[in-house]
Design goal:
By secondary structure, the chain is mostly helical. The protein has one domain. The chain contains 2 helices and no strands. The chain has helices spanning 3-6, 14-69. It is rod-shaped. The protein starts with a helix and ends with a helix.
Length: 71
C-alpha cells in the first residue's frame, strides 16, 4: 500500500465551510451582545420616562388638591 491509499479523501470545501461556520458564530455573538446592550439602554430610558411622568402627575395632582381644598 502506498501513502496516498492510506490517507482518507479530503473534502476541498470542508475548510471553507468551517471558516464560514465559525465566522457566522462570531457574528451572531457580536449581534447578540449589541442587541443586549441596546435592550438595556431601552429599559433604562423607558424606566426614566415612566418615573418622570409619574413625578409630573404627582406634582400636578398635589397642586390640584391644594387648590380645591385650600391647603
Amino acid at each position: 500500500m502506498t501513502a496516498s491509499e492510506e490517507e482518507p479523501p479530503l473534502d476541498p470545501e470542508a475548510v471553507e465551510r468551517s471558516y464560514r461556520f465559525h465566522r457566522a458564530r462570531r457574528a451572531d455573538k457580536v449581534k447578540r451582545h449589541r442587541e443586549k446592550r441596546r435592550a438595556s439602554l431601552r429599559f433604562w430610558f423607558v424606566l426614566a420616562l415612566i418615573v418622570a411622568v409619574a413625578a409630573v402627575l404627582a406634582a400636578r395632582t398635589l397642586g390640584e388638591i391644594e387648590r380645591v381644598f385650600g391647603l
